[in-house]
Amino acid sequence: PSSSLVLDPDFTVGEVNPRLFGSFVEHLGRCVYTGLFEPGHPAADDTGLRTDVLALIAELGVTVVRYPGGNFVSAYRWEDGVGPVAERPRRLDPAWKTVETNEFGLGEFMAFAARAGVEPMMAVNLGTRGVREACDLLEYANHPGGTARSELRRQHGADQPYGIRLWCLGNEMDGPWQTGHKTAEEYGRLAAETARAMRQIDPDLRLVACGSSSSSMPTFGAWEATVLEHCYDLVDYVSCHAYYEEVDGDVDSFLACAQDMEHFIDSVVATCDHVRARLRSRKRLELSFDEWNVWYQRAFHAADKPEWTVAPRLLEDSYSVTDAVVVGTLLITLLRHCDRVTAACLAQLVNVIAPIMTEPGGPAWRQTTFYPFADAARYGRGQVLRVEPVGSRHDTAAHGEVSLLHATAVVGADGDTTLFAVNRDTSRPLRLTARLGGLTASRVAEHRVLADADRHARNTLERPDRVRPTPLDPDNGGAVLDGDQLSALLPPLSWNVIRLT
Ligand code: AHR
């Protein structure tokens, strides 16, 4: 199999917004407790944050972190998580059937965000709560002082306002599983009034309305249209969520799931623009793909789960090479739509369907999926080129015929270009040729690949470095640049980063 493409700086999609490389921390399982926060751990700092995890987060290149949920937020009282820790209540979390101790709350999260150097993306509870509580939280977080809630924050040790700009108006309100689930009409009105009131307090906010929880929701499309009829002019983004998994060993369909993400993005963009036309609005909405990942959800729903315990092991998926390559295809798809998808969050960050794993009292380590994300976050900055691979294709049961090559390219501020490429063929290498139309590059700085003879290989506590990217030299198919012709042999089922300088 072979594929060719053209890299031409005259044809661009747009500039990548750094918020595309966000992640997500929910009060779920061990994401917070014994994940990023573990007082008493040998690597914990003075606030209980694990410095070994902070170091991995820095290496991962995460820019934004969404918090505190997820399904969790829809029954959460933010007041429970502020003030003296000894006085904070233990509560039932109905979403995950766990006990929330509230030892970690807004102040601890903001300390984490500062130390990790990430932008906070805060979600408000629009499941069991409404306009008033969202405004109270905003006052506590962002108002300088001189009012009840802003003074409370100052008493709690945060003299300066947090200045949180990004806010999610609830979470997955289209889902019947959501505590306080709403119809599109109900949610659209609530989102509009919450947005209006929040902007009255702080006009300089970026607000996200809930879109669909997946493209397979029965209300997909109609939900966005109805919600946006109510709040189009009051919000900046509509959210998208998508999780994928390999079903019944159909690896080809799994490797093609970026087709669904593509369809999702195109459909939501079309719906936003339809509402824009109807409302004769000049504003163009952006998409916040604020939950995406591989998640073995069927196994999660089928399993017996602990109930009403503190920080149980939940959703601790162990990711294979195949999963990492799929994560790579999803990153490529987000980059290919960077003109409209301007924020995104890999769900989640630590332990819970996460690129980073920890053991209580023990080490922290990288899953296979860590690597494509770190590559994209590092080199996927700049202008995305319009890249259209032409060549070998194959048929898949779930997504029809797809190209074996999935690719995009980004020209950085320094003029260097990075080509991200996935070979979806599980058994054969793919011959890639690219013509550099107008792109100036003199050599291949690096061709790095994530692949393995065993597509099920994964990193574990016992062997945390079983899978890692390796350089591919020209003798083994690594990329070669000859004049304006780039060629490479991409290994079967592989994630490739080819950097041209
Ligand atoms: O990320 C896990 C869960 O997936 C989130 O809590 C929810 O928003 C989504 O359904």
Could you explain the architecture of this structure?
- The chain is α/β, with parallel strands linked by helices and 501 residues long.
- The chain has two domains: 3-8 and 386-500, Immunoglobulin-like; 17-379, Glycosidases (TIM Barrel, Alpha-Beta Barrel).
- The protein has eleven helices and 26 strands.
- The chain has helices spanning 51-60, 106-116, 131-142, 148-155, 184-201, 222-231, 251-255, 258-278, 297-302, 321-336, 370-379; strands at 2-7, 12-15, 22-24, 64-67, 91-93, 98-100, 119-124, 166-169, 206-209, 237-244, 286-294, 341-347, 356-358, 364-366, 383-385, 390-391, 393-396, 400-403, 405-411, 417-423, 430-436, 444-450, 470-471, 480-482, 485-490, 494-500.
- An eight-stranded parallel β-barrel has the order 3-4-7-8-9-10-11-12, surrounded by six helices. Strands 2-15-19-20-26-22-23 form a seven-stranded antiparallel beta sheet, with helices on one face. A five-stranded mixed beta sheet has the order 16-1-21-25-24, with no helix packed on it.
- Strand 9 (206-209), helix 6 (222-231) and strand 10 (237-244) form a beta-alpha-beta unit.
- Helix 10 (321-336) packs parallel to helix 11.
- The longest helix is centred in the middle third of the chain and has 21 residues, at 258-278.
- The protein is globular.
- The model has no long low-confidence stretch (mean pLDDT 97).
- Alpha-L-arabinofuranose binds at residues 26, 69-71, 171-172, 213, 291, 347-348.
- Residues 26, 69-71, 171-172, 213, 291, 347-348 line the site of alpha-L-arabinofuranose.
